[in-house]
Design brief:
0% strand, MetI-like fold
Length: 327
């Protein structure tokens, strides 16, 4: 298994480099100039040209790429063209906020999706199963931005139960530790729910189908014939095997959650990577876009590796061959 994951790690590093390289050249081939926002008659052209040389934009694209990849390999993400600050400082503030939102949304996604899927499979063709199936299809079909706006209108504007935007209140600095935690948790509810509930609806359908396949197997009938309780049959036998293919879905869902966080963060004014990414794309802030793209790529690949580890943990019979990376 160690050789298999070492090979996968090498492939992952190569894949990240390819993604970053393609992104770099696509950004530079797109029309527009990052210095266009300084096109002001009152601004000295020499100052603008000096700034262009400072950021290295006066060089050819291959020279910029060689300089950028050299700095990037040393962990230097460069200087933001918009904020004129190190990109690492911007990421140090944005990445934890996005991870906080994504982790909570992932927990909602897994817990809610698995619980609904297992319950629906255990009560096949019941009223709960039919209503749950219909509700999952409806929720899965609703665009996330529309769901976010409707929840803001209901719980923030009409009922006033939850805040509608930002990560904390304006007066959060004056709050104690417990009050600050509650304040941030309240701000987290709506965006985490929007980000996780649609994925949970899809997970519930996958989980239900996988559980039904396992419940038809001979070993389940044998377990029931031995007199085991229905709960023991479901959780100790059927669920363990049904969860194996679900691990792949969970691993592949991480990039979808990160992608969905761009829209969700923008709607809820959440100060994370999604909001920073949108602003950087519109202002052609190359270093920030490339750095965020790198982080997202690493998270996506890490999600796939964790899914493979989950396979081995759930079913020890799965052996990873060091030759060819086959299972």
């Amino acid at each position: 298994m160690a050789r298999y994951f070492a090979g996968r790690l090498g492939q992952s590093i190569l894949l990240v480099w390819l993604v970053l390289t393609i992104t770099f050249f696509l950004l530079h081939l797109a029309p527009g100039d990052p210095m266009a926002r300084y096109d002001d008659p009152e601004m000295d052209p020499e100052t603008v040209e000096m700034m262009r040389r400072q950021f290295g934009l006066d060089r050819s694209v291959p020279e910029q790429y060689a300089r950028w990849i050299s700095n990037f390999a040393r962990g230097n993400f460069g200087i933001s063209l918009r904020y004129n600050r190190p990109v690492s400082e911007l990421l140090a503030r944005a990445v934890p906020n996005t991870l906080r939102l994504t982790v909570v949304a992932l927990a909602v996604y897994i817990i809610l999706g698995v619980a609904l899927g297992v319950t629906s499979a255990a009560r096949k063709n019941s009223l709960f199963d039919r209503v749950g199936t219909l509700a999952a299809l409806i929720v899965y079909s609703i665009p996330s931005f529309w769901l976010a706006l409707m929840l803001i209108m209901l719980f923030s504007l009409k009922l006033g139960w939850l805040p509608s935007s930002h990560m904390q209140s304006i007066d959060a600095a004056s709050l104690g530790a417990l009050e600050l935690f509650r304040n941030r948790a309240a701000h987290l509810v709506l965006p985490a729910f929007v980000l996780g509930v649609a994925s949970a609806a899809g997970m519930a359908r996958y989980m239900r189908g996988s559980m039904l396949d396992e419940l038809r197997c001979d070993y389940v009938r044998t377990a029931r014939a031995k007199g085991l309780s229905e709960g023991a049959v479901l959780m100790k036998h059927a669920f363990r095997n049904a969860a194996i293919p679900i691990m792949t879905i969970v691993g592949l869902s991480i990039p979808f959650l990160l992608g969905g966080s761009v829209v969700t963060e923008k709607i809820f004014s959440w100060p994370g990577m999604g909001s920073l990414m949108v602003e950087s794309i519109f202002t052609r802030d190359y270093p920030v876009v490339l750095a965020i793209n790198f982080i997202v790529s690493v998270m996506v690949i890490l999600g796939n590796l964790l899914a493979d580890l989950g396979y081995a943990l759930l079913d020890p019979r799965i052996a990873y061959s060091g030759e060819g990376g086959e299972r």
